[in-house]
């Protein structure tokens, strides 16, 4: 038995011989993508014991000043339209991976990655996004490579309250606030995704036509990490006004009320413990991750609960 009690025998020549195998304890990486910052927590597992071995916080305004945010967002003069650049969230993942590597964390030991993200924000991607995210060049930072993937360069976030008219239209189309709440779990609120999509589709129909995929912040961040479309979990989907809560599936009536041809633009809904894929080659080659599993992300409120 080796000096850490975790390895047995010789590396290649049987028991003894003076060289001992040391089995490194697995690591698990969790992200919290909030309005103002990205936090990463690394947990080491040794049998039944778990301990936090690293925690890093990247504050968007300070670490990524080129995006010009205040408290992580851009706010209109009247205070009603509040957005954030999704490219900033991608750059934050890149910067956080570099921080963890430079802090001496052996990212090859990470077995699985998951996260929580601010709820209700929506990200609008072109058809080019899937190919770009799956084929990133590990020799270059990620931010310059993703400029063409956004059909909408700013993502409306939970602080936005510019969609009052869209909320009224959803209530009218779906039989009133009580009926929408019975179907989706909540009456229409300005920050919820259905109203945000409806306003975008009606005020910028060309931008909506260029949109091939609409993600929540949680599923977008997971998609960036695994280089392919990640699903949305039912907890985060319940903040959209688009889910049939009793079936945990997209509600066709709500989709039709929000925008035309919306169903094909939304990711699948999967349980929060389902595996979305493995971390993409970009992250493995640039930062030294192993082929860690990417667990479906959720919203910060369901995760806090």
Summarize the structure.
This protein is α+β, with helices and mostly antiparallel strands.
List keywords for this structure.
305 residues, alpha+beta, 7-stranded mixed β-sheet, 3-stranded antiparallel β-sheet, 12 helices, 14 strands, globular, disordered N terminus
What is this structure's SSE topology?
Blueprint lengths: L26 E7 L3 E10 L2 E11 H4 L10 E2 L6 E3 L1 H17 L7 E8 L4 E4 L3 H6 L20 E2 L7 H10 L3 H8 L8 H11 L1 H5 L3 E4 H10 L7 H4 L5 E2 L4 E2 L1 H7 L16 E4 L2 H7 L5 E3 L2 E2 H5 L1
Helix pairs in contact: 2-8, 4-6, 6-10
What does this structure look like?
With 305 residues, this protein is of the alpha+beta class. 31% of the residues lie in helices and 21% in strands. It has 12 helices and 14 strands. Strands 1, 2, 3, 6, 12, 13 and 14 form a 7-stranded mixed beta sheet that branches. Strands 4-5-8 form a 3-stranded antiparallel beta sheet, with no helix packed on it. A two-stranded antiparallel sheet has the order 7-9. A hairpin with a 4-residue loop joins strand 10 and strand 11. It starts with 26 loop residues before the first strand and ends with a helix. Mean pLDDT is 93; it is low at 1-16.
């Amino acid at each position: 038995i080796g000096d850490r009690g975790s390895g047995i025998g010789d590396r290649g020549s049987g028991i003894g011989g003076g060289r001992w195998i040391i089995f490194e304890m697995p690591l698990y990486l969790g992200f919290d993508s909030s309005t103002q910052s990205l936090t990463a927590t690394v947990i080491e597992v040794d049998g039944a014991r778990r301990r936090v071995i690293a925690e890093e916080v990247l504050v968007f305004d300070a670490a990524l000043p080129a995006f010009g945010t205040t408290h992580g967002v851009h706010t209109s003069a009247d205070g009603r339209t509040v957005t954030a650049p999704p490219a900033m969230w991608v750059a934050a993942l890149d910067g956080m991976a570099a921080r963890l590597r430079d802090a001496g964390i052996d990212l090859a030991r990470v077995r699985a990655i998951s996260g929580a993200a601010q709820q209700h924000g929506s990200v609008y991607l072109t058809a080019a996004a899937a190919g770009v995210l799956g084929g990133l060049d590990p020799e270059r930072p990620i931010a310059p490579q993703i400029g063409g993937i956004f059909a909408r360069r700013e993502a409306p976030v939970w602080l936005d309250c510019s969609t009052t008219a869209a909320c009224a239209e959803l209530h009218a189309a779906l039989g009133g606030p009580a009926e929408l709440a019975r179907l989706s779990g909540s009456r229409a609120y300005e920050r919820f995704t259905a109203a945000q999509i409806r306003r975008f589709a009606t005020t910028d129909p060309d931008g909506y036509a260029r949109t091939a995929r609409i993600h929540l912040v949680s599923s977008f961040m997971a998609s960036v990490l695994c280089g392919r479309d990640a699903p949305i979990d039912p907890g985060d989907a319940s903040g959209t006004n688009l889910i049939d809560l009793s079936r945990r599936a997209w509600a066709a009536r709500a989709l039709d009320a929000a925008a035309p041809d919306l169903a094909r633009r939304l990711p699948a809904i999967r349980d929060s413990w389902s595996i979305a894929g493995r971390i993409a080659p970009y992250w493995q080659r640039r930062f030294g991750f192993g082929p860690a599993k990417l667990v479906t992300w959720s919203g910060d409120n369901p995760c806090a609960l």
